[in-house]
Amino acid sequence: MNPERLEQQLNDLKKQIASTGLAIPGSIQTAYLRCGKKNCRCQQDEKLRHGPYFLWYRRVDGKTATQSIAEGDVHLFRTWIDNRGKLEALVRKIVSLGADYAAVFKTTPGKSINSTTSMRGK
User: Is this model's pTM higher than 0.70 or not?
Assistant: First the structure.
């Protein structure tokens, strides 16, 4: 593959990353819970448990962290979680593209590559 085509693919991927938006780790779980009251209906019948409650789970410093979120925010949190997956896929594509570029890259002896914005460092 030629370097110009690879450069165009990199620019396309960077545009996609820039337009992705906020990204967060984790997952959302829906829970129906029992309360601590002995005579509450939730103690007798699983169908009568309290909820739904929406919980955001993620890893923080190697431990599972849980945060309750409002039902109205569930869609927003799921969008942010989906964005993380999209960003990770885009980064994998950039890494693969970098390997492809390195395989075809030609440089003159003594010339260094110094680039953060393009492949050729123009």
Answer: yes
